[in-house]
Structures are given as structure tokens and as C-alpha cells.
Amino acid sequence: MEQNWFAPAHWGRQMNEKNLIAVAKALADSSAGLNWYGLDQTLSRQPAHQWFNVVEAVEVLAEKGLVVVLPSGTPSMPVYKLTELGREWLNHPTQAARTARDQ
């Protein structure tokens, strides 16, 4: 079985890949990007939503280059946007995961 590349060694648990995909899809649907609150609100309206820390999920995606974190007018509310690699990952998750892991 392949190691979960979403589980940084310093974290005590693995991030659920389904949650990461849900975050990426929500960001893909927002051309302006979302802050953590907007992302949390968007995800909470999904029928099969499971509660998780959206900031942790974004950090995992950002570490792999799938999301970029941009400053906003409020330091505690940065804006998250999906990168081109993130869009590729949504279309082909296995291939994009290997590309990100190898970088």
C-alpha cells in the first residue's frame, strides 16, 4: 500500500483524502478564493459533510502546491485559492499526487 502523502510526519493523524478533495472542489468553484470561514460555510452546506479543521486541510494542500495562501485585509483571514496543480489533482488525483510528492 502506498504511503498517504497527505500525512506530514509531524502530525499525529492522517488527513482524510475525501476531506481534502472536498476543500479543493470548493476552492475550484470560487474564482475569487475563500477564507477559512467562507470555506467552512461552503463545506457545511454539502449533504455528506463531515466536520474537520479546514485550516489543517488547506495547510496540507498548500504544502503540496495545490493551494496558495494569499494575504487579505485581515491577517487572521487569508484567502485560499486552488493552483493549476490543484486543478490537475482534482482531475487526476493519483498522477498529481505523485508529481507533488516528487517535488
Structure description:
- This protein is mainly alpha-helical and about 100 residues long.
- The protein has a single domain (about 15-100), classed as Winged helix-like DNA-binding domain superfamily/Winged helix DNA-binding domain (Arc Repressor Mutant, subunit A).
- The chain has 5 helices and 2 strands; from the N terminus they run αααββαα.
- A hairpin with an 8-residue loop joins β1 and β2 (about 80).
- α1 (about 15-30) crosses α3.
- The longest helix is centred in the N-terminal third of the chain and has 12 residues, at about 15-30.
- The relative contact order is 0.18.
- Residues about 5-15 have low confidence and may be disordered.
The mean pLDDT is 81
Instruction: Please give the CATH architecture.
Output: Orthogonal Bundle
The helix tally amounts to 5
Report helical residue fraction: 40-55%
Taken together, the total number of domains comes to 1
By secondary-structure content and strand pairing, the structural class works out as mainly alpha
In CATH, what is the class?
Mainly Alpha
What is the C-alpha radius of gyration, as a whole number of Å? 13 Å
User: How would you name the CATH homologous superfamily?
Assistant: Winged helix-like DNA-binding domain superfamily/Winged helix DNA-binding domain
Q: Report the count of strand segments.
A: 2
Biggest sheet: strand arrangement: 1-2
**Major β-sheet annotation:** 2 strands, antiparallel
Q: What order do the SSEs take from the amino end to the carboxyl end, as H and E?
A: HHHEEHH
